[in-house]
Write a structure and sequence with these properties.
The complex is a heterodimer of chains A (about 300) and B (about 375).
Chain A (H helix, E strand, L loop, with lengths): L25 H16 L6 E5 L14 E4 L5 H11 L4 E7 H7 L4 H7 L4 E6 L2 E2 L5 E2 L23 H8 L3 E5 L4 H13 L4 E6 L12 H7 E3 L10 H8 L6 E8 L7 H13 L10 H4 L11
Parallel strand pairs in A: 1-2, 1-3, 3-4, 4-8, 7-8, 9-10
Antiparallel strand pairs in A: 5-6, 7-10
Helix pairs in contact in A: 1-6, 5-8
Chain B lengths: L13 E6 H11 L4 E4 L6 H10 L6 E4 L3 H13 L4 E5 L2 H5 L1 H10 L4 E6 L5 H5 L10 E3 L4 H18 L3 E6 H5 L1 E6 L44 E2 L5 E2 L4 H17 L2 E4 L6 E4 L4 H14 L4 E6 L1 E3 L3 H9 L4 E3 L7 H9 L5 E3 L18 H11 L7
Parallel strand pairs in B: 2-3, 2-4, 4-5, 5-7, 6-7, 12-13, 12-15, 15-16
Antiparallel strand pairs in B: 1-8, 6-14, 9-10, 11-13
Helix pairs in contact in B: 1-2, 1-7, 10-13, 11-12
The chains are: A alpha/beta (about 300), B alpha/beta (about 375).
The structure holds thiamine diphosphate and iron/sulfur cluster.
């Protein structure tokens, strides 16, 4: 069952660390779907970097055989960009929770999107802070009761799909472990996409999450884009669909740019190649500073 | 939570059985704090969760913020508007807030900031900080739930008295130890504070005010604002002034606000010292040592900044060795050495001792362990 057409096996991508997630946590399904997707993509584990922030979901790198680490809360995306730009040959995946990605780390999201760095960002969205035991998350619905909003929250949630689309992301999808086949297909497509790809996974917290956010409810309410006549090449249509976040559970690819432009990392490499010819030899490096007129570094070779 | 302390108003002292973190939170409310924000992280989450229930009841605001950086800056704004405000965070979150904390010292924003840390590894962070610009905090380290209450009062008092942010440094053990505490009636320590002539609460009918760390002052603005009026009456800018002022202010603060708890120093042959709740372990170990015939004295700095250097200088002058017990790799020991000035041996007897969660409550936090260490470093070792 786990062996794929290219000879890789999902088990290759699972480490022998036993997850300490609560039994039934949605993140188990994400881990399985991710290792299946990676097996299908077929890059060997040592060519994959998986980086996360802090949270229950952010433990995921440790449970795979990819290179990677838990970093600090909210910073998975800048670290992932650093990895990709310094080592463009790696396949880079960032992962974490909704708090990690949309609260403390929310400020990083527009920038990775507008740069279009070639990496995949998987958010395990459970509408609550799992690791710190049940506080209000930025994706929790208005009026949610938690230990930090005992009378119900007063703020509207962020809509991850909508705002990532609004920033200009070129691949935006949503999945749930209630549909494992669908989830691993989405993750695979996201990983293969050339450019920044965002997957919001509705990954229930069985311990602190609301009953209507559990897998059972997902199974009952699930609406698959693959099953309707939906064309994911229209950003505005995707944005209209994304408005249903929090009310309806649509899964599948909301938006995929039909002609993705070059990624930031590709452009960087192009520029490096273009300028390499102009590089001064080391013994003439001071000339760079001596030239006040004209373009530095463009002295006659 | 269902305690006397949950009822505000009245003048009778309130008694309640509370965890240290909750006691501190209630203390802040009793001290008039009406704006609180926090981002969850154990063990400061406890303060946030208490405030979330309690603040709306007393007409205050509690926000589960987007992250610590948003939080400290909201507190800056709320304080600048004249409302007593507080944020509690933990270790990592404190690291994030350093920039604003530094500017709040220089800009003289009297907020109260709490670090409920993990272990005592943030001593350097709290007393030196990762911040910039010649800033120093005022740092208080309560050692019990009652002292947490009193420290909340004192922190707001000092903050407004000196127009200076105040940092309270506690830890997991303080936050989670339940004890009976008494809340004094409307805290008299907070009665006679200077009028808030700096508050930016709307300039109708008066000159505008500028709360800034940049050395700017509005033309004609009075008071000790960090600026000078340039030639021709134009407001000029002296960018070093806030820093020089902050340094000078700290000398004044050190002269009158330094607090330290001591015991059995008169005949001491060895002094054990610790801060925060670990002081209680050190004190008890000293008592046990005395029962064994070792004359051990005890010192617990309550103000970590200003540090009670003089107390240690006196001990150094008498040549009495000092054993420093901390739950870290040796941080306060440096201040003790500065205090003793090389005139007596200083032994570090602490270590990083954590539980499985890394919250800082490890097996070495034990009076018998401290006693064992005291036996090792006692000058009459083996003779006792
Ligand atoms: C600077 C900082 N602040 C706070 C924390 C505490 N903290 C750890 S994880 C977390 C949020 C967890 O929620 P989420 O990111 O949604 O992940 P989940 O645990 O639900 O998977 C918080 C607040 C921290 N580690 N660092
Ligand atoms: S607390 Fe929630 S998110 Fe964390 S492991 Fe348990 S079920 Fe999963």
């Amino acid at each position: 069952m786990d062996a794929t057409r290219n000879g890789h096996d999902a088990r290759e991508y699972k480490s022998d660390l036993k997850p300490i997630w609560c039994p039934g946590c949605g993140d188990f399904g994400v881990l399985t779907a991710l290792t299946r997707a990676l097996a299908n993509v077929g890059r060997p584990p040592h060519e994959i970097a998986l980086v996360s922030g802090i949270g229950c979901s952010s433990r995921i790198p440790g449970y795979t055989t990819a290179y990677g680490f838990n970093s600090v809360h909210g910073r998975a995306l800048p670290i992932a960009q650093g990895i990709k730009l310094a080592n463009p040959d790696l396949l880079v995946i960032a992962a974490g929770g909704d708090g990690d990605g949309f609260s403390i780390g929310g400020g990083h999201l527009p920038h990775v999107v507008r740069r279009n760095v070639d990496l995949t960002y998987i958010v395990m969205d459970n509408q609550v802070y799992g690791l710190t035991k049940g506080q209000l998350s930025p994706t929790a619905a208005l009026g949610t009761h938690t230990v930090t909003s005992p009378e119900g929250s007063l703020e509207a949630p962020v809509n991850p799909l909508l705002y990532v689309l609004a920033y200009g992301a070129r691949f935006v999808a949503q999945g749930t472990p209630a549909d494992m086949a669908g989830l691993s297909a989405i993750l695979e497509e996201a990983i293969r996409f050339p450019g920044f790809a965002f997957v919001n996974v509705q990954s229930p917290c069985v311990t602190f999450g609301a009953p209507e956010q559990q897998l059972k409810a997902h199974k009952e309410g699930l609406k698959q884009l693959a099953k309707i006549d939906y064309d994911p090449t229209h950003r505005m249509k995707a944005m209209a669909l994304a408005q249903t976040y929090g009310r309806e559970l649509w899964t599948g690819v909301f938006y995929r740019d039909p002609s993705p432009p070059p990624t930031y990392d590709a452009l960087v490499r192009e520029r490096q190649r273009a300028l390499a010819a102009d590089a001064l030899p080391r013994e003439r490096i001071l000339e760079l500073f001596a030239q006040h007129d004209g373009e530095p570094g463009r002295a006659e070779a | 939570m269902s305690t006397d302390a949950t009822r505000s108003g009245g003048t009778a002292p309130m008694r309640a059985f509370l965890e240290g973190g909750h006691a501190l939170a209630e203390g802040a409310i009793q001290a008039g704090c009406r704006f609180y924000c926090g981002y969850p992280m154990t063990p400061s989450t406890e303060v946030l969760e208490y405030m979330a229930r309690r603040m709306p009841q007393v007409g205050g605001v509690c926000i589960n913020v987007e992250a610590e950086i948003e939080g400290i800056n909201m507190v800056w704004g709320a304080t600048g508007g004249g409302v007593r405000s507080m944020i509690a965070s933990t270790t990592n979150g404190m690291s994030l807030m350093q920039e604003s904390m530094s500017e709040m010292v220089l800009g003289r924003v009297p907020a109260v900031i709490v670090n409920m840390g993990r272990g005592q590894g943030d001593y350097f962070q709290c007393t030196r900080g990762g911040g910039h610009g010649s800033h120093r905090m005022i740092v208080l380290a309560p050692g019990s739930a009652q002292e947490a209450v009193d420290t909340a009062y004192r922190a707001f008092h000092l903050a407004e008295k000196w127009r200076h942010p105040v940092l309270i440094y506690g830890d997991f053990m303080l936050s989670h130890t339940s004890e009976t505490v008494t809340f004094a009636p409307p805290p008299d320590t907070l009665a006679a504070l200077p009028a808030k002539t700096w508050v930016t609460d709307g300039a109708r009918g008066r000159k505008p005010r500028l709360l800034t760390s940049l050395g700017m002052r509005l033309e004609g603005e009075s008071g000790s604002g960090p600026a000078e009026i340039g030639p021709g009456g134009h407001s000029g800018t002296d960018t070093t002034r806030p820093m020089r002022d902050a340094v000078a202010r700290h000398r004044e603060i050190a002269a009158v606000e330094t607090r330290v708890e001591t015991a059995w120093l008169d005949d001491a042959e060895l002094v054990v010292t610790a801060f925060g709740i670990l002081g209680r372990f050190a004190r008890y170990a000293a008592k046990l040592a005395r029962e064994e015939g070792m004359k051990v004295g005890y010192v617990r700095p309550y103000t970590l900044v200003p540090f009670p250097y003089d107390t240690y200088a006196e001990i150094g002058a008498r040549g009495i060795p000092v054993a420093v017990f901390e739950n870290n790799a040796g941080q306060m020991v440096q201040d003790v050495r500065l205090g003793v000035e090389g005139r007596a041996p200083v032994h570090f007897i602490g270590e990083i001792s954590m539980d499985g969660s890394g919250f800082g409550v490890g097996p070495k936090i034990d009076a018998l362990h401290v006693l064992e260490k005291l036996r090792e470093v006692h000058p009459r070792r083996g003779a006792a």
